[in-house]
Structures are given as structure tokens and as C-alpha cells.
Amino acid sequence: MERVLVLTMIVAHVAVNVNAATVILHDPSSKILFNQASTTSVSQAASTGALCAATALVPPYNLADETAKQVKSIVQHDVFIKPKALVLLSIAGMAPDSSSVQQLLQSFGNGHTAQLSVADGSRPASAGSVLQASSDVVAANPDLAVKVLDHSALKGCHPATCMAGHLSAAAQRCGGKLHPPQQQRNQQGLAGSLALPGMDAPLDLTQPAARLFGIELAGLQGASQQEIDVLKMQQQQQQQEGQDLAVYESTFVGL
């Protein structure tokens, strides 16, 4: 069975309407074929089915014929292609226009992408219900290894030193920079300012909302690097690679 490096599923919550969710499926290896990259309106069941089809996972319920047709219109299923890892990323507070989603899509670079507008009947599906559906997929496949990629995975990581280092690395990966605080004395948490591309002004990390975003970004960077280091060590020790899909979950609410 051919193994794709990683499949990313992003659930973006629109800032002014928590009952609107955009689901983005992205395969950087370009081995999973999506039938269209432009926004497609689908049912919540079809969104769940598309995730299962792209990952070769067992769906949490039987798909109706009409839903199965929708799934086929989104992704070309190949049982011999299965990702090694699935990243479930929930992003809250997206701008109500489409520009923020488009910027997110552009940041992916190469690969195949499907953008889905999920509906529940005649109304947009809530982001919470879409996330619950992805959790139901995980629950229907009990052999999956599920890990959380956030600051909770970084045991003993001091905010002013360890977390600041992860945030600096994350900023550099994004083409930005973490500017240290002018005064270093008695520093107990993240401080300074975070400059990222597309921002009108750097984020002041002494402010609660900016600090929350910084912690989440640093946690994602640090936990991801920690997991990469573990996988590299396993490869060096020539441990047998399992065939089960690894699921990594992360959430951004500080946008």
C-alpha cells in the first residue's frame, strides 16, 4: 500500500457566524486526487465521507446513495493509497470574507486541495458539528493513534524560554520574526512582539489575545517538532513502521 506523507483537514470557523464552517482537505504529496479545488457546497455526511475516502478509514455510519455520489464528486478514492498521518486543525475566528481562507490556501504551496462549504439541510452546518463528525470517524477506527499538537504536550516548557524559542522558530517558518521584550528582568511569560507576513503591525504579546495566539502557535511548532524527533529516533533504531494512521489534533482560538 502506498503511503502519503500527510493529509491535513482544516475546519475554519467564521468569526461573525459560529454556524458556518469551511472544511479544507489538503494533500501536499499530490497523490490523493480531489475532483475540484474551488469551493463546493456539500452535506455534513458527504464531508465526513470525503474524509474517510481520502484516508481509507471506516465511516462512522452507512452513507446514503446520494451522499456517496457527493463523496465521489469530491475525492477519487483509491484503497491502495493511505496517508501516514492525518492532521485535524480547527481554526476559530476567521474573517467573514473569503480573503483569510484564500491566504490560508496560498500558504499550503504545492499539493491537491478541496475546499468544502458544509451545509446541514438548507442551513450552514455548525463548526462544532463538523468537528464532532471528525471525532466520530476517529472513534469508529479504534486502532488509530491520536495525539494533540499543542502546548499541553510540552511538559516543563517555561513560557519565557522554551515556549519563546518555539514561537521564534514558528515565526521564522512563516517568514516573520519574534522581537524580544525591551526589558528582560522578571519575565514570567511570553513577551515582546510577533511580526508575521500580512499583519499591519506586530502583535504585542503582553496583550491577552495576542499572548493566546502566541502560545498556540508556539505549542503547535514545539509539539510538532517533538513528534518529528520521536519519529526520526524510531527510524534510526529501525523500528518497524506500523500501517495504522496517526491522527494529530490542534486548535487555534486566538486568531
Question: Could you explain how this protein is built, in words?
Answer:
The chain is of the alpha/beta class and 255 residues long. Helix content is 34%, strand content 29%. The protein has helices at 44-55, 65-74, 99-106, 127-139, 159-173, 208-236, and strands spanning 2-4, 7-14, 17-27, 33-34, 39-43, 75-76, 81-83, 85-94, 112-120, 123-124, 145-148, 177-179, 193-195, 203-204, 246-252. Strands 2, 3, 5, 8, 9, 10, 11 and 15 form an 8-stranded mixed sheet that branches. Strands 12-13-14 form a 3-stranded antiparallel sheet. Helix 5 (159-173) crosses helix 6 (208-236). The model is unreliable at 1-5 (pLDDT under 50).
Strand content: 25-35%
Percentage of residues in helical conformation? 25-40%
Q: What's the total helix number? A: 6
Q: Element order, helices and strands?
A: EEEEEHHEEEHEEHEHEEEHE
How many DSSP E strands? 15
Q: Which descriptor suits the 3D outline? A: globular
Uncertain runs: 1-5
Mean of residue pLDDT?
Answer: 80
Give the biggest sheet: 8 strands, mixed
Pairing-aware structural class of the strands and helices?
A: alpha/beta
Radius of gyration over alpha carbons? 19 Å
What is the rounded distance between the termini? 39 Å
Short description:
34% of the residues lie in helices and 29% in strands.
